Amino acid sequence: MNYAKIIGTGSYLPRKVLSNKDLEQLVETSDEWISSRTGIHSRRIASTHETVTSMAEIAAQHALKMAQLEPNQIDLIIVATCTPENFFPSTACLLQHRLKIPDCIAFDMSAACSGFVYALATAEQYIRSGAAKQALVVGSEIMSRVMDWKDRNTCVLFGDGAGAVLLTQANEPGIIDSQLGASGTEKDLLTLPTGLYDDAAYVRMNGREVFKMAVEAMTNSVRHLVEENGLTVQDIDWIIPHQANIRIIKAILTRLNFPMDRAIMTIHEQGNTSGASIPLALDQGIRDHRIQPGQHLLLEAFGGGFTWGGILLKY
Ligand code: UT7
Predict the structure, then answer these.
(1) Residues 6+ apart with CB under 8 A from 28
(2) Which residue among 82, 93, 104, 113 is the active-site one?
(3) Whole-prediction pTM value?
(4) Ligand 1 pocket, residue 156 CB under 6 Å
């Protein structure tokens, strides 16, 4: 049986820090409102010469170094992004070119903030079936370029960054199970148009409705994954949730009776980096040695679509 196992992770965050105090100069808001309602204190903003691909490349290089793998050993690249440079060529193809990989499968995944979980679950299927041996899965986002900087409902929430994971074929898990879901009925509650059919290529959100659904879907997904696999929530060592709002994370963990200090948090200094938030948090937990080999991890995401998903794995 082929399983997919994580052998490397990496991150990239742009240098520029945008604090809540800085945002007070842009829109009618306050540090107090943003930190108490969201948990966010600051976020990173990409410079004009940075792209989702340049950020993805640095995150991927760090993951390759950790895994002690050469780029040409990768046979599948999936990039989760909702802020690509082009419709085509895909960010995955641009990344393949930068990494000088002569031939491999490469495509982007579009599932908003759930994109990384969708991409990781897809890469796992390739490895399980034997269609790929080594997969590079990246979440990379420049959310600052799709913000309406006059809309305080959204512009205070998001940030930029990239996270990468390398998967390889293994005899034991690795990824144990995944659960993905979507509901297009709520398509209008969280949107980012292309700009081709209307002028506004900005994120718009009905925050309250998104909040409620995010808590419900992610809580159910955790319960489903542990029960399906004969575990209890107490068997999970670390939950790595999408970082949209600390109050969403707290609400989920309270419902699950799971301690806050067993969840990896990056929201305070990164804000919501959409598809990049889970691999960024995972990399942080691995590099600061909180996450140890053999531990059970649960990655959980929710985003526009609506889309959601969870991955249960043994690190
Ligand atoms: O990553 C994809 C998934 N995204 C999410 O999961 C985000 C989900 N939603 C949320 O995190 C929260 O709903 C928000 C952080 C977006 C908003 O928090 P809230 O507690 O739900 O606030 P609200 O939208 O109910 O607004 C409360 C008040 C409103 O004023 P009134 O109508 O009560 O007078 C807003 O106009 O806060 C006002 N407000 C602000 N005030 C200062 C909204 N944004 C701001 C702001 N600064 N930036």
Answers:
(1) 152
(2) 113
(3) 0.98
(4) yes
